[in-house]
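Shape is hard to put into words, and the shape of a protein is harder than most. The fold becomes a row of whole numbers, each drawn from a learned catalogue of backbone shapes. The outcome of that step, for a single protein, is printed below.
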Amino acid sequence: MKVVSDLLVKSPVLYITDYITKARQLLREEGFRELYVTDEKGTLVGYIDITDVLRVTDTKSNVTIDGFLKDAPSVYSDAILEDAAVAIRDAGTDSSAVVGAKGEFIGSILLSELFPVLVNRHELHGLVGDVMTRRVVTCAPDDSIQKVYSLITESGYSAFPVEKDNAVVGIVSRKDFLNTGRVRSSISNSANTSVEIVMTTPAIVAFKGDSLDDAAKAIVRHDISHLPVIENDGQIIGIINRQDLLNNLRI
């Protein structure tokens, strides 16, 4: 049976004295949603996530990351995968740090890599409508990047469905804002660039009567983290993500 070391990812490391701009650059280039922070001896001291990084838009900021640190979930490299799943679930993160016997940071394990294994091993019972988030914040294709950026940084939500004429036409996430240089320049220059240029389209959707098992398989198949939930007429009524499904896995 696979253990944590089998899915270990050698992720970049930040130090307490590093600048937030370095964190932003690493998150953008490496594709992680969290980065782990160590002291000078390599001991894990916390993590920083994308939402925190997005709050600082100055490309030459001298703000250090120590003020943004959060307590990091962690597991040992020889732990079973279910232990990592519980750590991620309890922390509400997209990954967990992996540490050695003395607390030294070794790497991380990602929910995106762990999720397919868990779905294959454990049962999911229930319907999408039972666990989806019903209060969905959406945006429109012609909304300004600044407006949606503010929604992401202020709300803590990681993605927003993009809606036009009562139909979901795409989805925009925190990662989209880090990966596009035009986004950063638009925010800095207060430009009225629309979110349409960065949204992912088409959006993969679910229905409230779909089983959680089918929703989980769709997320695995398309390698996505969110599914907008729609009625038969296309109107959005909710959203479900990996964390919602993780919370309902019997582990």
